[in-house]
Amino acid sequence: MEIKEEGASEEGQHFLPTAQASDPRDSQFTSIQKTPNEPQLEFILACKDLVAPVRDRKLNTLVQISVIHPAEQSLTRYSSTEIVEGTRDPLFLTGVTFPSEYPIYEETKIKLTVYDVKDKSHDTIANSSGI
């Protein structure tokens, strides 16, 4: 699995030409500052070509997100996605956001576990690490 990072500068400054400039020679630039409410880390999840354990069964996929903090070395459940039903290529609408005040570091490990939900009414899930 590959996590792609969007380009962001350390200073949180980018310069964009204003829309009001009619003449390219008179372009003005506006500085956009990073606000304190912006998340520290944010990503979306999708799976591709998942294989069902039983040939004719449709998958109902959920991803659980857990965090391993460097100092504690214990696994902490952070969040999970919604269940996406009946597809081998689920795209999850629920993203993962770590707010700026969340203690996440370069050494922090994020574990993503894919589950096949067998019976939503009983909250029965099967660990589908093989999918």
From TrEMBL:
Domain spans labelled C2: 44-125
UniProt-listed Pfam families: C2
The UniProt record lists the keyword Lipoprotein: no
InterPro entries in UniProt: C2_dom, C2_domain_sf, INPP4
Keywords linked to the UniProt accession: Hydrolase, Lipid metabolism
Pathway where this protein functions: Signal transduction; phosphatidylinositol signaling pathway
SUPFAM superfamilies associated with the record: C2 domain (Calcium/lipid-binding domain, CaLB)
Biased amino acid composition, Basic and acidic residues: 1-13
Positions of the UniProt region annotated as Disordered: 1-35
GO molecular function terms attached to this record: phosphatidylinositol-3,4-bisphosphate 4-phosphatase activity
Catalyzed chemical reaction(s): 1D-myo-inositol 3,4-bisphosphate + H2O = 1D-myo-inositol 3-phosphate + phosphate
Hydrolase keyword on record: yes
The protein's Enzyme Commission number: 3.1.3.66
Any one cellular-component term (Gene Ontology): cytoplasm
Protein family according to the UniProt entry: Belongs to the inositol 3,4-bisphosphate 4-phosphatase family.
Protein name, UniProt field: phosphatidylinositol-3,4-bisphosphate 4-phosphatase
